[in-house]
Amino acid sequence: MELDLLWLILAIAAGSYIIVYAFVRRVNEWYHVSKLGEKRHFLPPGDMGWPFLGNMPSFLRAYRSNNPETFIDSIVERYGRTGVYKTHLFGNPSIIVSSPQTCRRVLMDDEKFGLGYGKSMTRLAGKNTFVNIAKSEHRRLRKMMTSLMISHEALVMYIGNTEDVAIASLEEWAAASKDEPIEFFCETSKLSLKFIMRILFGSTSDSIFSSVEKHYIDVHDGVHSTAINLPGFAFHKALKARKMLVKILQKVVDERKAMKKNGEQTAKRGMIDLMMEIEDESGKKLQDEDIVDLLIVLLLGAHDGPTHTIMWATIYLYGHPQILQKAKEEQEEIIKTRPSSQKGLSLQEIKQMEYLSKVIDETLRLMNLPFLDFREAKTDANIKGQLLQIMSYTIPKGWKVLIWNRAVHMDPDNFSAPKEFDPSRWDNNAAEPGSFIPFGGGSRRCLGIDVAKIEVSIFLHYFLLNYKLEQLNPESPIVYLPTTRPSDNCPARVIKLK
């Protein structure tokens, strides 16, 4: 009798838990979806998760594990391979797009989808940059900046500005490694910042470099924080650091203008000098405020990518001896065919690094930085799913659209054995449009692709020819938030070859 009563109590408790659980899980859905009226019937499959938290618990659980793919995999398992799903993440009702077709549709449609960055990014980037300006001004600014990013003259200048940084840094790492291991991730982060500052400023005083570095780090940390402007919060600290950066960079602009007026020239010109010279079709130049804002956003946008690409490409190469040997032989061949009078790398030689370019592309695919891009629906938009092409889903105005790069790059339907490092997959590659999107797409596609690849190519050229990497803990766990890196920052020795 007592046992029957106990089972009855347990059954009632379990039933009550299930009812409460189901009710609570539906609250977020009712709140965000019911207000859409008839549009709610055309939303893609998915669920809105818990009140306030949304689906962040399951996202964090997956990305703090050793297999972040489980987040998208669980959604696909529940709702099918539609490539478009409703969810609630990062504090907003959102739509995830995770197939080449749906990602490309969002990236290419500027009329219906705009940038969806958070308040921290939009405030810290500056009002005169690509992040915040209107479409017509964006088109004008992008056209002006393109010549600074892809022209032959500009790229040759950037090679000259960064080559000596790579050589000097490798020498320093090798010397330091004789005494104790270096943290390879931290050192590549410092190197990447040196690269971009040398590209932006050419030659300038060490005090400018150190001042910019100090305040840049605070601004960078603030971009990834919650926009709470109160003492003690990262965003508050970042806003103060940005004001200091503006003063420092304005001083550099004033100095360059004065030098130009007096007919003087720096030992090495940088992108800042080109910014002061470029004009739009009507002959209008960039104002000082425009230049300073652009310098800050370029610092923010051009640091993390090369940092992680340099680190992971080196780690992947030394984890795959046959691929390492093939990449090294290509660099040796470039040296053999170089005229004896030539000093340093040329742009033509970098363009000849076909296999190294595949190594870089494979690194970008596998490391997935960023793992998603943010967009926002400017108006109600319709999008077709991956498989049910006759079915068109609605993305409501104001909802975030999360372009899940990692899902695309790690999908075996797009790339066979996606977790394997295999540069040969890019031989005669005819990937479906939208299946390789580390730099975004459409009119918002990153302008600095060529510059970033030059930085990585220069580093790997000298590393492959003259050094080797010895990781102390190659089996270190990997963390995926906020970016993919070894949890121990990759302690290693950089050894100079005889």
Automatic annotation (TrEMBL):
Compartments, as annotated in UniProt: Membrane
Biological pathway: Secondary metabolite biosynthesis; terpenoid biosynthesis
Gene Ontology terms, MF aspect: ent-kaurenoic acid monooxygenase activity; heme binding; iron ion binding
Biological classification of the source: Eukaryota, Viridiplantae, Streptophyta, Embryophyta, Tracheophyta
Cofactor(s) this protein cannot do without: heme
SUPFAM superfamilies registered for this protein in UniProt: Cytochrome P450
Topological type in the membrane: Single-pass membrane protein
Residues that coordinate or bind heme: C446
Domain of life per record: Eukaryota
Keywords: Heme, Iron, Membrane, Metal-binding, Monooxygenase, Oxidoreductase, Transmembrane, Transmembrane helix
Cited InterPro entries: Cyt_P450 (IPR001128), Cyt_P450_CS (IPR017972), Cyt_P450_E_grp-IV (IPR002403), Cyt_P450_sf (IPR036396)
GO cellular component, one term: membrane
Family statement: Belongs to the cytochrome P450 family.
Transmembrane segments: 6-24
Any Gene Ontology biological process: sterol metabolic process
Protein name stated in the entry: Cytochrome P450
UniProt xrefs under PROSITE patterns: CYTOCHROME_P450
